[in-house]
Amino acid sequence: MYICPLCGTKDSKYFGINKGKIYCRRCVTFQGAEVPYEKKYNFEKVEEKLNYPLSKEQEEISNKILRAYIEGKNILLHAVCGAGKTELTYKVIAHCLSSCLQVGFAIPRRDVVVELLPRLQEAFPSKKVVAVYGGNTSSLKGDIILLTTHQLYRYKNYFDLLIIDETDAFPFSGNELLNDLFFRSLRGTYLMMSATPLPYMEQNIKESNGVYLKLMRRYHNHPLIVPRCEITSFIPFFILLKYMNKFIKNHKPLFIFVPTIEEGEILLKKVKMFYKNGEFVSSKTKERSAIISSFKNGELSYLITTSILERGVTVKDLQVIVYHADHELYDEGTLIQISGRVGRKIDAYDGEVIFIASRKTKKMENAIRKIENANEQEGL
User: Fold this and answer.
1) Which end of the chain is more exposed for a tag (fewer CB within 10 A), N or C?
2) d(Cα 300, Cα 294) in Å, to the nearest integer?
3) Do residues 351 and 317 lie in contact, with contact meaning Cβ atoms separated by under 8 Å?
């Protein structure tokens, strides 16, 4: 029986022969240098650098994560949007770095990797933090390797601690190959994190005698923003313009989420007849990083976007509109994540999330109910 040396599959349907050699169709696109594990011996005390103290609840979760890691247990952290998940990992990362252990931090989407890099560099200034993603693979070794889940194929049996954020996000969620590569890259234990974990994740962690942790409070102790529904059987574009006028007039940055690229391109042309200072971004936008930077710098009033920006992006005073929130592509997890973009800053914890739709779907109702339930729970 042939076993693919890269992805580990035994399924013969994936195997072909080219020039007398067997290749695997399942992982044939994963081509590039693999990195051998190297034990480090430069022991030194490493402490995380935080610009603000953790809350009582954050401190408790951070300690529980460290304790579970020392005990060799895998961890699932369910924390609401804006709970400060990244900062909760710093203590266990510092422990691993002090012990000369290899740390990986995997995220499904490149944009979030780019967003997170300067934060990790600031938190651990004495250590080498590298980002590895498509188009950025010149440096593959570091004390902390921040990477997209697609790049995990380079690191077989490599990470003593592998953190993965947004485990329910595309393209990692439901992708059997990426999940296999995740476990293939482990030599130690993992920490999975999400604001919207899928049921099987909790089931797996419990069956493996791992640790399941919850944090249902934002780090600034203000509640999650509950979406407001604008249901209209008339022309939803007029409702959109009403809210755009309100937010732009008050100098509030605005994300307008659309379900598809085609709809985003059409909507931008219509909106620009009224408000010119905006752009559209999607997974196919070549200058996406530059456009997002312009928006963050206040050079743009609004961004129309697909779900590519539903996670990992923090903008002060951001307001959110979900256009056609009743579209079948929006599940409750996506709507919760989108809503979680608002109110993330300690000095800007308020804001609005507007669902514009022709009907209220079960997914919309469930998303709103789960946000309300999280607000009603105690922190832990």
Assistant:
1) N
2) 6
3) yes
Gap between the Cα atoms of 50 and 155, Å rounded = 29
- What is the C-alpha separation between 113 and 380, in angstroms, rounded? 28
Q: Which residues contact 350 (CB under 8 A, 6 or more apart)?
A: 222, 225, 343
Query: Can you give the three-state secondary structure of 309-336, one letter per residue?
Result: HCCCCCCCCCEEEEECCCCCCCCHHHHH
| pLDDT one-digit tens code per residue, 166-214 | 888 888 888 889 999 999 999 999 999 999 988 888 888 988 889 999 9
Give the residue-averaged pLDDT of 264-283.
96
Where do the H-state alpha helices sit in the chain? 56-70, 85-88, 90-98, 110-123, 176-184, 199-207, 236-249, 261-271, 288-296, 332-339, 362-376
Q: Tokens 């050699």 — which residue? A: 21
C-alpha span between 317 and 87 (Å, rounded):
21
- pLDDT (0 to 100) of residue 380: 66
Contact 242, 323 (CB under 8 A): no
